[in-house]
Amino acid sequence: MLRWTDLAEVPPDFGPTVVTIGNFDGVHRGHVAVCRAIVERARVDGARAVAVTFDPHPASVHRPETAPELLTGVPDRLELLAETGLDAVLLLRYSLEFAQQTPDEFVRRYLVEGLRARRVVVGRDVRFGRGNAGTLETMIELGERHGFVVEVVGDVGQTPHDGHARWSSTYVRELLATGDVAAAAAVLGRPHRLRGVVVHGDARGRELGFPTANLGPAPDGTAVQGMVPADGVYAGLLRRPGLAATTGAAAADAALPAAISIGTNPTFDGVERRVEAYVLDRTDLDLYGEEVVLELVERLRPTLRFEGLDAIEQLVATMHDDVARARDALGVAQPASPAAG
Length: 341
What we know:
The protein is α/β, with parallel strands linked by helices. The chain is built from 10 helices and 12 strands. The protein starts with a strand and ends in an 11-residue tail after the last helix.
């Protein structure tokens, strides 16, 4: 999939295109269905399928104090969009200056002159241009003026576990805020992801027999990408993108089962919220400075605070139980016991 951040990067002979526009935060099953639909339509039309999206999220520019927490960072959003079969994504830098374009200016510059759109696929609630003045009716009118067809997609799908909420980024955020990563996965079509660089922690997990990979702000200040769900302990996978294309023994370490803790470590009076992962049965990994992706499969329990003289013993016993439950959730077999001597 081609990835552009400016119209100047679009080849002059690229197109014609079938285009869809959106934030695509989380790239949930509804987004995927729309993208795959425009891919199919583009193949029939002899055109290229393109998604136009924005960074940062428009809400963070216009109302930063109430902007939603993003489900995915840009790398994961682009990776997930690529998996739908799109030919290209145009990732536009969103700013107050960008937002001053009239609906006609936006359509003419980006869709008509830039992408040579033959067909534009949007939702009924589409808004674009200065002050969100552009509506579905505006897009249809501009399509008639500039020579492209507008197709409308309605809400796509319902969550199978409750049957009433449409697939949406807002609904996924609500589920993650309660720690229900399994229900979130039903909307996303995959486990929710967190991406970050492994940094040094307090080494407390190693001292207790459970060395963890701590995700934190990278040396360049980049924060963990992806909405961090409610505090608790989760079963999941630690993926190492740098090993994804390897073969042999290294490839076996590209996706590792893990017990993942999110919270402030209240037993030790912690105040900083952390994300850390213990890779099951592995004490030999050196992940410091490496970018990893955590996939959250199931919430095992909420965060607990242990007190009293035996607090550490209670904590260690609970961590052993967490590991056993993570094995069950992930279908990981118990490691073989050493042969008796």
